[in-house]
Write a structure and sequence with these properties.
- This protein folds into four domains: about 120 residues, Rossmann fold (3-Layer(aba) Sandwich); about 100 residues, 2-Layer Sandwich (Beta-Lactamase), CATH 3.30.450; about 70 residues, Helix Hairpins; about 150 residues, Histidine kinase-like ATPase, C-terminal domain (Heat Shock Protein 90, 2-Layer Sandwich), CATH 3.30.565.10.
- The chain has 14 helices and 17 strands.
- The longest helix has about 50 residues.
- It starts with a strand and ends in a 13-residue tail after the last strand.
- The C terminus is likely disordered.
- The chain binds adenosine-5'-triphosphate (ATP) and magnesium ion.
């Protein structure tokens, strides 16, 4: 039942209105002055108030103000007498809903209340709509935020580097993969750096030109192609690059580039090429070496015999010495070629790699060229055994150690470290020698590549090619890290549990 409060100092009016309103089905409360009325209002919170504008003590205007302050939705109908028009207008300004002039007829009262009720209902509806709308807006915002977050996550967590720029090249998006690939932090580039710096000179311009042409995948699109980007430290990184122009209302607003790191792939390709080159060269040289070996043995045997025969003829003996020495050198070369072609049988067995390193060192450290070298050993005693041919591994380590000694030219430090993880046992040979430029590193595993003076019999360029072949034959790998003037580290890696040579054993 709707509650109505009547505040009027005239009792007759209160009684008359109470009767009419109760008949119309309202619950009626009344008060004879402002303060009492406000107290009743506070206690019962009626939705409609009939308020006499002229009362002794607190004025109707004041009561109206306080009611509206307490609950602005209350419908306050003002009751006025003749001559109170100014006051009534003032009340309407203070958001009274209507006014009734005394004497009040029953019908007029009923109509006015009906209107007040309708207004109340309307207000309620508006309130509900507003609340509903607020919920809808809130929900829409949450959805929007989610969609935004999802997209941001997608970009941030992409395995490919994503870099987006405004028109002109200022970087605005730089995801984690881009940080990893290019070595910059987001905070160093976003809003601070131009994309031009991420490419070799002139390349950014070329990419933009291709993007704006129709020839590389369509207007505004650059289809995946190989390219190069520049790391923070200046080195170039091979990548797959694809890009697109971003438009805003038909206008070019910026562009986005996606980069996939090709370093590992390029290395694999290089390895594959090296293996192929080695195996075809190996087959060819093995054939030639065999052919040379036979007559060579003949020459060496007869030259040695002749030397004995002319032992007293010094000049002839000296000439024959030269023949013997040079032929012996040729035999050494042939031996090297045969080894390179893996003509020697492989005998694999479980071995402690540290022991092989020690055996190798025992042989080399006695050589004069090792005297000025400071040797540091850093062995991890928990390294597991590997299955390998000890004499072949010794040959590999010997090659690497002698190269290191050569590179240090009589003084420096050679650090030999053993370590392991769950899959690999690794031996690092770190020297403080002259180091190599990238152009040399690229070729060191090529057979017959040497920077040493081969005419003086210093290097044949077979050491690393042979070593590489041996290690590959053990399912391992040789890695190299070198800096000119600072030194080189060779890492030999062998598998902890090499695949069985005889294939899997099946239980029947
Ligand atoms: N530790 C190193 N520091 C600097 N350069 C190196 C190092 N190891 C190898 N090299 C370079 O790699 C080249 C090839 O090495 P590799 O062992 O295959 O042949 P070599 O030592 O020249 O001759 P060989 O081993 O047949 O006597 C060397 O000539 C040298 O230029
Ligand atoms: Mg060598």
């Amino acid at each position: 039942m709707t509650k109505i409060l009547i505040i009027d100092d005239e009792e007759s009016i209160r009684t008359m209105m109470r009767m009419t309103l109760e008949l119309d089905g309202y619950e009626v409360l009344d008060a004879e002055d402002g303060p009492t009325g406000l107290a009743v209002f506070k206690e019962h919170a009626p939705k409609i108030v009939l308020l006499d504008v002229r009362m002794p003590g607190m004025s109707g205007l004041e009561v109206l103000s306080r009611i509206k302050a307490a609950d602005p939705d209350t419908e306050v109908l003002i009751i006025t007498g003749h001559g109170d028009m100014d006051m009534a207008i003032e009340c309407m300004r203070k958001e009274a809903s209507n006014f009734l002039t005394k004497p009040i007829s029953d019908e007029l009262l009923s109509v006015a209340l009906k209107q007040a009720m309708e207004k109340l209902a309307l207000k309620k509806k508006i309130r509900e709509y507003t609340e509903n709308l607020e919920t809808l807006v809130r929900e829409a915002n949450v959805e929007l935020e989610k969609a935004y977050q999802f997209r941001a996550n997608l970009i941030e967590n992409s395995p490919d580097a994503i870099v987006s720029v405004r028109k002109g090249g200022e970087i605005v998006i730089f995801n984690s993969a881009a940080e990893k690939l290019l070595g910059y932090n987001k905070s160093e580039v976003i809003g601070k750096m131009n994309i031009v710096k991420l490419y070799p000179p002139g390349e950014a311009k070329r990419v933009m030109k291709d993007l704006r042409s129709t020839e590389c995948g369509g207007l505004g699109i650059l289809k995946k192609r190989e390219g190069v980007v520049v790391h923070k430290d200046g080195h170039e990184i091979p990548v797959y690059l694809s890009a697109a122009i971003l438009y805003d209302q038909g206008q070019e607003a910026g562009s986005v580039g996606i980069f996939t790191d090709l370093t590992e792939r390029k290395q694999l390709e290089k390895q594959l090429l090296r293996s192929e080159k080695l195996s075809s060269l190996g087959r060819l040289s093995a054939g030639i070496a065999h052919e040379i070996n036979q007559p060579l043995t003949g020459v060496l045997t007869f030259a040695s015999l002749l030397r004995k025969k002319f032992v007293k003829d010094e000049s002839t003996r000296k000439d024959l010495d030269i023949i013997v020495r040079e032929t012996t050198r040729i035999r050494g070369i042939v031996q090297g070629i045969l080894e390179f072609a893996r003509e020697t049988p492989v005998r694999k067995q479980p071995i402690a790699i540290q022991d092989v390193v020690e055996q190798t060192l025992n042989i080399v450290v006695r050589q004069e060229r090792f005297f000025g070298i400071n040797l540091v050993k850093d062995y991890d005693q928990s390294v597991p055994e590997v299955v390998a041919d000890p004499s072949l591994m010794e040959q590999v380590f010997m090659n690497i150690v002698l190269n290191a000694v050569d590179a240090m030219h009589g003084s420096g430090t050679l650090t030999i470290r053993t370590r392991h993880d769950s899959d690999w046992v690794m031996v690092d040979f770190q020297d403080s020698g002259e180091g190599m430029p990238e152009s040399v590193v690229d070729k060191i595993f090529d057979p017959f590549f040497t920077t040493k003076d081969s005419s003086e019999g210093l290097g044949m360029g077979l050491g690393l090619a042979v070593s590489y072949g041996i290690v590959k034959n053990h399912n391992g790998d040789i890695e190299v890290d070198s800096q000119v003037g600072r030194g080189t580290t060779f890492t030999v890696r062998l598998p902890v549990n090499p695949p069985s040579e005889t294939g899997p054993v099946c239980e029947v």
